Fold this protein.
Amino acid sequence: MKLDGMGLLVDDMSKMIRFYRDVLGFEIRETEDTSNVYLVKDGTLFMLYRRKDFEKMTNRRYEYVMGLNGHFEIALYVDTFDEVDAAFRNAVENGAAPVLEPELEPWGQRTCYIADPEGNLIEIGSWNKPFDLKDK
């Protein structure tokens, strides 16, 4: 099997599309009024599923954590430490909830955390080198 993408079950589709598209730069592939919306970030498929539509499709109810939650994180990379700070400020100014302000970690990575409008964690980090060289 190959990883094709990842999905997020959402309550307010329009709000979440605007956040991921306008604040974080994801490219949208559908209109806002569809049940499943495909977005792409750096070649990776990111799907948003409307919770009520997914429940109807699977004919069952699910429980959802409300507010800030720690079930998973989405990690985004920028090339420099300064870009971490700028991305954090921009995201917070445009609706993200601040979780951890940018800081230099003991292992050498500058990182911060924000939450999207439905409380899902997003990390923005850098090793202060281009993405293609970060693991070398």
Q: What stands out?
A: The first strand starts at residue 5 and ends at 10. The radius of gyration is 16 Å.
